Amino acid sequence: MEVPRTDRMRAMSGSTYDAVVVGAGPNGLAAAVELARNGRRVAVLEAGERVGGGTRSDESTLPGFVHDLGSAIHPLGYASPFFANLPLQEHGLEWIHPPAPLAHPLDDGTAAVLERSTARTGATLGRDAEAYRRLIDPLAEDARRIQATLSGSRSLPRHPLALASAGLRSLGSARGFAEGAFEGERARALFAGNAAHSFLALEKRPSALFGVMLGTLGHAFGWPFPRGGSQSIADALASYLLSLGGEIFTGVRVRSVEEVPKTRTVLFDVTPRQLLDIAGEHLTERYAGGLKRYRYGPGVFKLDLALDAPIPWEAQECLRAGTVHLGGTLEDISAGEAAVARGEHPERPFVLLAQQSLFDPTRAPEGKHTVWAYCHVPNGSTFDMTGRIEAQIERFAPGFGDRILARSAWGPADLERWNPNLVGGDINGGFMNVRQLFARPMFRPNPYSTSAPGLYLCSSSTPPGGAVHGLCGFMAARSALRYLKA
Ligand SMILES: Cc1cc2nc3c(=O)[nH]c(=O)nc-3n(C[C@H](O)[C@H](O)[C@H](O)COP(=O)(O)OP(=O)(O)OC[C@H]3O[C@@H](n4cnc5c(N)ncnc54)[C@H](O)[C@@H]3O)c2cc1C
Description:
The chain is α/β, with parallel strands linked by helices and 486 residues long.
């Protein structure tokens, strides 16, 4: 389709594009890169003053303390077959692997620890050591093989039966999976923490999928983060895009598709609600109806802290991990997540915490530290969870509160003001229930195309959904490239 240029856009650029991408989150940038490396003329229009969307970093507490405003830990970014094929290191991206991906402290002062090796992990899981190793070893080996295949080198899975069996079981609930696979509290707790990334009650399908997938990725690839902040992922993508001849305009909020400069295709790195606002009149009633029925998930309450020393974990092993899950047992975590699903605010929320500065000195002044944390809250919640998050940290690290120098707390409304894709505080671009995991944003043979020829959706509201991996953008760009060739 061809849309008229506004004066503003005419001032920005003098010519016609093959593709304009609205939004410079990791998926928008990924889409633009894929189009540009296939020889297409592409421009990206970003509402914010900097590229990155959910991968932005900033000194939001005190000077010299670099906080990840959105994403922090990137197992999927590191394993992404698309990112793996781009020269992002040459554009400044450097991954840091903490000695252990994840620690999960318990009330007895010890911790279950997800180490790179399943044997070492098992040593922290008591009687479930062998069951854990038997479950994860074949999955981790095949995850590496599948990633290699998707990245271009052929490598067939070695354990197809184990893969199929775990795949089927992981479509069930996390509670069912954990209670079936493990006997003891430690392994069940570790699994529950990973499964809670789903934003689903742990009794709901397919919460087990997140437990299996994140655990497997931890062993197969690690849970790394970028030196200098998550912003480095977006900056590396943007720098590569510019080197390919792509153009990026920041500070441009697109309110209507008519504002987009002259182009043959437009790819939207936005969620269904915004797509309706921006391009609703170009969409069929049926497609627009599907977008209106799209569901958003629970929100998050985000807390960034500047500390004058590391967190004084009771379980010392936690100091070896980039990520720490705070919530205690499967029962505790399940109670908290069930409360969120009922629209309540748990007294003891499940908290996801990252402590990047322990392993990346660029994040804070010497001897000082940053903490990134969030918990789940009902969509659109206005309740201040700061005290409850800090109490959960204090539960496993007595004395932690005395080390706080400054804090920056963001509820759902603050998050959405910062990035309109975070509707009601939903960080995944839409609920990840069974239906919307597969039919995203709705059931269509090509989920990236819209009902309007030339208009595409490329955000995490398309498969495979939330997290920083660029695959939604890549797949949408492939669709747009087919259209441009036709
Ligand atoms: C607090 C938080 C923690 C997270 N933690 C992790 C994590 O640890 N690991 C992980 O992998 N993922 C994490 N995520 C999720 C991850 O950030 C998202 O899944 C990912 O950023 C989605 O990428 P996207 O490109 O689809 O959208 P976004 O990153 O949301 O980018 C969309 C961009 O579009 C722009 N935009 C929107 N509307 C317009 C408009 N009308 N005109 C112009 N520009 C517009 C926005 O400003 C934004 O820059 C987290 C997110 C948040 C918020």
